[in-house]
Known about the structure:
By secondary structure, this protein is of the alpha/beta class. It has helices at 110-113, 126-142, 158-173, 180-186, 207-227, 234-245, 255-263, 268-278, 282-291, 297-309, 317-321; strands at 4-10, 13-20, 25-27, 31-34, 39-46, 59-62, 68-69, 82-85, 90-91, 104-106, 189-191, 197-199.
Amino acid sequence: MRNLIEYAVNNNEASVTGFKGSAIEIAIPKSYLRDADNTSYTVTRVEKKAFLGVKGLKSITLPESIAEVGDWAFSKCSNLKEIRFYSQPVFGRTVFEGCERLEKIYVAAKAIDNLSSDVNTEGMDISKLNEDIACLLASVVNKFEAGYLLRDDDIGTREWFKRWDLALNSYLTADDIDGYDDRALCGEEDISYDGIASVDGELLGDSGIYLNEVGKNKCFLCVLRMIHDSFLEEDMRLKLEKYIISRSFDSDRAFAWKMLKEDAGENLDFFEKYIEIVSPSKDSIEKMIKDISADKANIRSYLIKCSKNIKEGEDDFFSQLLL
């Protein structure tokens, strides 16, 4: 099927209004040449619902000319994993609603230029900072209700990271059951294909399932933040570590381990960070190996290596792990 980006022209500027095709990756050009008048127009906007429900897309790149992204523009792109903006556009409502697999939202390099003047960027790994921003931005639209952080105009600054941490702290301190009754009784807002928002009415089922998902989600965000730790203050780091340890493999609420086993796939970074935080015993690691599915060969291999490196006198765990 031919891939086709659809456009409209208004006030001598072009906007993306839709997409038809089966492409996995697309790059929106900076300009649109309209056949009717053989004139080129700068593409400045992605219209409301332009990519709604395009399930095949995994990666999208947008030019620096994009200044605005409309409501639900990429909603229900259920396989979208990465989106890259060479601008820092104004985002509408729930632009990425239903993009559960979204891992990274890159914004323009100018986000780095917005760093507070009191921050010395000399020696800073700007590449890592960009990755940290991209991963934390994605989390605020698919992991917890902090989408307002996507619409801030100071993304990438120390203050923005502080607000991200405040949002996470609020989420962690809220009771895990919060929000269940509202969602179970009312259903979640869905976006219909006829242009009318509707309520799907789907119940969430057993509250135990809901609590399990929330518990895993909170642990995911804790580990994510410690991996992407730009401007992470020490008191917050200690709080996140304590949260994970209290929900580790050997605890009564093993949500951190469940998250790794069920949701982290073969993301070795997550497993390595977990081991670093928890510093488990040899016996615990061997139990983890038995509990992890056989198809996660890389993870099993890593855990086996961890187990072998723990010898007599396990207090020196990390020194031995580096051997």
